[in-house]
Structure formats: structure tokens, C-alpha cells
Amino acid sequence: MTAFQVPRLASSILSPSPELCFKDVSFSHEDKVLLGPCSFTLKGAGPTLVMGPNGAGKSLLLRLSHGLLLPTQGQITWSGEIRPRQAMVFQQPVLLRRSAVANLIHALAVNNVPRRERVKLAHDALERFGLTACCNTPARVLSGGEQQRLTLARAWVLSPQVLFLDEPTSALDPAAIKAVEAAVHEFHQRGTRIVMTTHDLHQAKRLAGDILFLSGGKVREHSPAEAFFEKPVSREAQAYMAGELVE
Ligand SMILES: Nc1ncnc2c1ncn2[C@@H]1O[C@H](COP(=O)(O)OP(=O)(O)OP(=O)(O)O)[C@@H](O)[C@H]1O
To answer: ipTM for the complex?
Structure first.
């Protein structure tokens, strides 16, 4: 068994999902507080669906969690001794100007997966995501749905312990949305902690274990999904669910 396969099994089947803790976290730009201060811990099974109106701070929260931005104040910590392996999928797929399979092989290479394992892992993932026929197609000429499946395949080969998805289906048709949701479900079943933003209430109901609701740069509510959809407790979430304009 290789060094790569050990954490793959350990993370997905044996270990609980890593917990994410925000403690008094704020993010400011040019003296304007865009997010926070907020404190919460993601420790349930999830998936966690991050909801709220445009400009609420959902993408900022994901980027801070993933380490793409640093908080201006406060601490973001993970349970365990080392930062968990993680991946992020964006609304607009970010792919290299090379073939579909080469995108996966590149991701494996930069994550130090032994060379001899890369081709098989890449082809297995392409097959899992229904992309075998597009294997040698330049990634950037694939359809939007195919590109999004390729970004999920790229995350899949890395066996992340945490997967962030920022509105991954907002530009997709129903069939492509179904494929992405099936993949999210499978990541979750495999033990990956899912943190995902969406504006689609139906999608949130289909996927969520818990809801983190934001408005105006603040976390207004963090509830189990069933309770949230039955009766949100915060005034802001009640207004949002009633279809009122919420800032
Ligand atoms: N890098 C940045 N520099 C300055 N302002 C930013 C930056 N990133 C986001 N903002 C601002 O922070 C606020 C929150 O943005 P964010 O993208 O997190 O909102 P969101 O909830 O994801 O919105 P949407 O649902 O429209 O995608 C917005 O007012 C946005 O203009």
C-alpha cells in the first residue's frame, strides 16, 4: 500500500469528518467589514448548505474556510493536528488549457501522488463521472455540465476530507444538476465534509444536513435542515424564506 492510499482510506471510511471552527472571525476590505464577526462550529455530519441573499458573504465564508483569504480578525481552526486535505469547486469551472485526463493527472502530480498511480486514478475518475469519451478532449471545449463534472472528478481523485462547493450548479441544466448532486451525495457518503452554497431552496432541502444562514455579512442562524425548513428562528431567515427582499 502506498503513502497516498493510507490517508485515502483513513479519511474516507475510518475517521470522522474534520470539524471547522470559526471564532470571532471578521473579514474587512478598506475599513469596511464584509463578513463577521462570526463564530460557529461545523461538527455534525452535514452536508452544510450555506444560504442567504446576494452579497451576504457566503463566498467569502467559503474562501476563508478554504484558506484562499485570511481573516482580518479571529481564528479559523480545524479539529485534528494537521489541516485536512481539501478541495473547492466554483460556479465557473477553473480548468487548465489541456485535455480532460491531463487536468486530473496534473492535480495528482502537484499533490505528490506517485507517477505510476496517476494514469489509472485519472481514468477511473473519468469513468466514474461519465467522461471517458472526453478523455482527450481539451477541457475548455467541454460543455458547462461536463466541465463541472471534470472539476468534481479532479476533487474526487484527491480524496478530500473536506469539499467546498460555491454555487456549483447555478449555470447548469436539470440533468447536469442531478449529476452534481449525485456526486455531492457520494462524497458525503465517503466521509467527506461538504460545505456548499446555493440559492436553490429545493436543492438545499435535497442535500442539507444543516443550514448556515447569512445576511449582511453575519451568520444569523445555524440549524439542522429539518428545523430550518420547518420554522427558521431568525427574523432574517424567516423573511428570506417568505420571499422578501433581505440585504
Ligand atoms: N475580494 C473582495 N474585495 C472587496 N469586496 C469583496 C471581495 N469579495 C467580496 N466582496 C464583497 O463582499 C460582499 C460579500 O460577497 P460574497 O461574494 O461573499 O457574497 P455572496 O453571499 O456569495 O453573494 P452571491 O450570492 O451574490 O454570490 C459583497 O458586498 C462583495 O462585493
So the answer is: 0.96
